[in-house]
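Teaching note: in complex prediction, the entire set of molecules is handled at once rather than each chain in isolation. The prompt given to students was simply: 'Predict the structure of this complex.' The entities are:
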Amino acid sequence: MKRGVAITGMGIISAIGTNVEENMTALLFSKTGIGEISNITTRHQKDIKVGEVANTNSQIAKSLQLPENTIFSRSALLGSLAAKQALENAQIERISEYRTGLVSSTTVGGMDLTEKHYKTFQSNPETLKYLKSHPAGDSTQKIAEQLGITEFVTTISTACSSAANAIMLGARLIKAGKLDRVIVGGTDCLSKFTINGFKTLMILSNENCTPFDANRKGLNLGEAAAYLVLESEAVIKKANKKVLGYVSGYANANDAFHQTASSAEGEGAFLAMQKALKVANLQPEEIDYINAHGTATLNNDLSESVAIKRIFGDAVPDFSSTKALTGHTLAAAGAIEAVYSIVSLQEQCVFPNVNFKQPIPELNIPPAVKFQKKKVRHVMSNSFGFGGNCSSLIFSSE
Amino acid sequence: METLRQELKENIIEQLNLEDFTVDDIADDDRLFGDGLGLDSIDALELIVMLDKNYGIKLTDPKEGKEIFVSIAVLAEYIATHRTK
Amino acid sequence: MEGVIQQFYLKSSILKTSLHIQSFCSFRFNKIILNGETVVAKEKGLSFSEFSKTVYKESGIAYPKFFKMDNLSKLTFLTAEVLLKNCALPSEEKEKMALVLSNRSASLDTDRKHQLSIQSKENFYPSPAVFVYTLPNIGMGEISIRHQIKGENAFFVFKEFNAKFLMQYSEALIHNKKASHVLCGWVDIEEDAYRSFMYLVSKRGTYIHSEAIINKEYQNI
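The expected output is the structure of the full assembly:
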C-alpha cells in the first residue's frame, strides 16, 4: 500500500482546550466552547456567540516566556503556543538536525493590533510599531523564530481552506524530498474586523450554531491555532519515531461560481474530495468518518451535503462538524480539524454533530449525532473557503 | 414617490457599482435580481446596509430582503411606509 | 527569510523534462506589456481606478461584475484577461488549469477600506461588498469564475517576487499531473502603486520555463 506522509506531533489551542488532551476530552464529552465574547469589546456582544480562547494575551506571552514589550499579535501568540506543543509532542529537540520548514496560514494576521491602534497611528507615531505586525507573514515569521526554523518559511492565505492547503503543501514538500520535516498548520484570532465583516454578510448566528440542521441560522466565529509535525520516512526510520497517523490524500479545486457562495451542485467540494481519494488511492467506501466543513450557514451545509452525496451515493459514511463546539476558526479550521481527525484515528471513534435536530429536507442525510466507538482507518477532512477555494484532506492510520 | 424612486435608482447604481446602467435604463417594475439587473446575494446585503444608513430601516434576516428587493416600485413602497429618517 | 529560501532551492534543484512558457503579461505604471511588447500605454497621471476602467472599456469585454471588484481583483482579472486571450486555450484545458499567485501586500489595500468603514462610531456601516474582498485569493476566485478554471488554487504571501518558488511549484503540479497548465505570477497593489506579472506555464511554448527568464520578464516593466 502506498503510504502517506507521517505525522509525528501535534499541538492545539482552541475554545475547547489549551492542548491536545483538553481538546480530546472536550470532544469525547461534547463540551462546547461557544459562549459570549469577553476579550473584545464590541457592540455586537449580545447578538453573537463565539468560540473564544479563554487565555489572555499576557497569559500566553508569559507561558511562552516572551520578554516584556515584545509585540506579538494574538494570532502569533496562539500560533507560537500550538506550534511549540507540536514540536514537543514530536520530541524534536534540535531543529537543525534535519532540513525543517514551516508552512503557516492565517487570514487575520495582526489585524487585532492594527484595529486597536489604528486611530492613533497619525497622532501618535509611537504606536506605529504595532503596524509591523499587520502583514500575514509576520505571525509566521514570529512562530518560525520561536521554533528556530530558518530553512523554509512561508505563509498561505486562501480564506477558510488556508490550513488545509498548508498541510497539503507540507506533505508535498516531504514527498518531493525537498524537506525532511515540516511544521504545518494555521492560526487566527478573533478580531473586530472579522466579526463586523461576517456580521454584514448576515451569516453569524445569535445562538449556538447548528451545523447540518434544517433550521440552521449561521455560524459562530472562533479563534484557534493548531500545527502538525510532518516527517519523512527516512527520519522516522532513523530516529525510530512514533507515528500518530498519515496524511494520505489531499487536493484543492475551485468551485468557479461566486466570491462567497458555494454552487448548488457543490462542484468545487466534489472535485476536491474526488481528487483527494485519488491521491490516497482509496475508494469512497473506505472512508470511515468525514470531519465536514459544516459551518452551519444555509449555503455551505446544503452545498457540502450535495457534494458528499455525489461522492458517496447511498453509502454516506458517518460525518459531523466539530464547529458546533469550536466555532469557525477560519485559517486555523483545517488544522484543528486535522488534529481532531487524528484523534478520531487514535481513539477509534466518531464525534457527534452537536445541536442537530432535523436533517436538511432536500437531502435527508443526517450527520452522526452520538459519540461512537468504531473501526476508523481513514478520515476525510473538508475545508472550503471564500473565492471558491475548496480543499479536502485524508488522514489514515497506516 | 416619484422622487424616492429616482433617488433609489441613483443610489443603487452608485452603491452597487452598476457602471453600465443609467437611471433611465431601470424601469420601476424591472426585476432587480435574476434576469433584471443581475444583482446577487452580496448586492442584497449592500441594499440592506443602504436601507439602514439612508432610511433608518433595520432588516435582521436576509430573507426579508427577498420580498422587498423585487423592483424599484416595491422597494419605494416599502421605504415610504417604514422609513424612520 | 528570502535569502534562506533562495539557498534552500539551490540545494534541491532537480529538474525533469523542461517546461515552457506560452506568454507573459505585466501591468505597471499604466502600461501593459505582453510578451515583451508594450500593448497599452496610458498617461502616467491616471489613478489605478481610471486606468483599469479605461483598459476594461477599450478591451470590449462585457462583464459588469468587473465594476464590483476591489482593486486587487481588478488587477488580477485584467492581467489574466490579456494573457489568456493571447494564449487562446480550449475550455477543457482551462478547466484543468491551476492558479499559483503571490504578492507582498496580501489584501491590505482593501483591508484598509474595510477598516475605515468600521472605525467611525457615528457612521458605522461596514460594507459587505468590501469585506468579501479582504482576502487575497478572491481575485483567483474571480478569474476562476470568468474562465471556469477548476484546478488547484494557491496564493502565497512573500516579501518579494520569488521566481524560483513559483517555478518549482508549477513544475511539481505539472509533473504530478495535477494540471496541464499553470497560470502563475505576482499581483500586488497598494493604492496607486500596483504591479502585476502573470505567465502561463505549459508543456509547449515560446520560452523556456527557467528562473532566469521569469526574472528577466518580471523586470521588464
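Point out the following to students. Chain C has one domain: 2-218. The mean pLDDT of chain C is 90.
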